[in-house]
């Protein structure tokens, strides 16, 4: 099932996509919901970020080749950091380059959407707490990441977490392709099979650190090939079975 979030006449609705149509819902898929009654053409609605999480937990250096291209080792335990909810945007919304940075880069990632409140989840029960999966771009001010010594600013600017275009609830993530294309040129091409730690291990480990709420998002790391974004670019992230998630790049006003 594909679950989306759409703007219709300036109102936001969750919806279920079937073929080229969207059946609108009342409520939200993490709790009580029901059909709203309208079924609209997908081309007649504006997709927004499929979820607005309380927090985005991202995992660094979870692909060995990416760790090497960064000149770093794979960490002994998951390396996590937070991106604020204000960094989240949806498909088609512009990534705004901040004046503070001269080196902003793309990072294509599989995003896990949590479906229920949970803590200390055993690996074998992780499927019970995962609602679905979507595409993410962990946009990063690489120069600030290096200079600051921690990643809050480099990863946390407004618009630095595109998500979408929808949530796929039924997806084989054992060997799903992860790709990034900029202006029609492929920059990243990897597979979830190359992750150092898989989704079950990551969700279990993170839930041992912090309580996860419905709608929270976990970014699972990026394959090698990260590269620069400049104003005027168009960047697309694709996961096999999801996407593409496409965003223009502009200078921040």
How would you describe what is shown here?
The chain is mainly beta and 253 residues long. The protein is 12% helix and 43% strand. It is built from 5 helices and 20 strands. It has helices at 64-69, 126-129, 142-148, 152-156, 199-207; strands at residues 2-8, 11-18, 21-27, 33-41, 46-47, 56-60, 79-83, 88-89, 95-97, 104-106, 108-114, 130-137, 140-141, 161-168, 177-182, 185-191, 217-219, 227-228, 234-239, 242-251. Strands 1, 2, 3, 4, 5, 6, 7, 8, 11, 12, 14 and 17 form a 12-stranded mixed beta sheet that branches. The longest helix is centred in the C-terminal third of the chain and has 9 residues, at 199-207. The protein starts with a strand and ends with a strand.
Spell out the blueprint of helices and strands:
Layout (H helix, E strand, L loop, with lengths): L1 E7 L2 E8 L2 E7 L5 E9 L4 E2 L8 E5 L3 H6 L9 E5 L4 E2 L5 E3 L6 E3 L1 E7 L11 H4 E8 L2 E2 H7 L3 H5 L4 E8 L8 E6 L2 E7 L7 H9 L9 E3 L7 E2 L5 E6 L2 E10 L2
Parallel strand pairs: 6-17, 8-14, 9-20
Antiparallel strand pairs: 1-2, 1-5, 1-14, 2-3, 3-4, 6-7, 10-13, 10-18, 11-12, 11-17, 12-14, 15-16, 15-19, 19-20
């Amino acid at each position: 099932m594909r679950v989306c979030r759409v703007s219709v006449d300036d109102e936001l609705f969750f919806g279920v996509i079937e073929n080229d149509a969207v059946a609108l819902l009342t409520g939200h898929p993490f709790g009580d919901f029901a059909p709203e009654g309208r079924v609209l053409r997908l081309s007649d609605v504006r997709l927004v970020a499929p979820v607005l999480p309380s927090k985005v937990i991202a995992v660094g250096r979870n692909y060995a080749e990416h760790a090497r291209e960064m000149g770093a080792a794979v960490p002994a335990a998951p390396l996590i950091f937070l991106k604020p909810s204000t960094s989240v945007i949806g498909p088609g919304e512009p990534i705004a380059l901040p004046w503070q940075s001269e080196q902003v880069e793309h990072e294509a990632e599989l995003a896990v959407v949590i479906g229920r409140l949970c803590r200390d989840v055993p690996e074998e029960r992780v499927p019970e707490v995962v609602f679905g999966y979507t595409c993410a771009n962990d946009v990063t001010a690489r120069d600030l990441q290096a200079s600051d010594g921690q990643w809050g600013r480099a990863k946390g600017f407004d618009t630095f977490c595109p998500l979408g275009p929808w949530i796929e609830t039924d997806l084989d993530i054992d060997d799903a392709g992860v790709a990034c294309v900029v202006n029609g040129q492929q920059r990243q091409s990897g597979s979830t099979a190359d992750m150092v730690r898989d989704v079950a291990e990551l969700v279990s480990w993170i839930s041992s650190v912090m309580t996860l709420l419905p709608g929270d998002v976990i970014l699972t790391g990026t394959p090698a090939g990260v590269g620069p974004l400049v104003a005027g670019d168009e960047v697309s992230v694709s996961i096999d079975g999801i996407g593409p998630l496409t965003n223009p790049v502009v200078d921040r006003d």
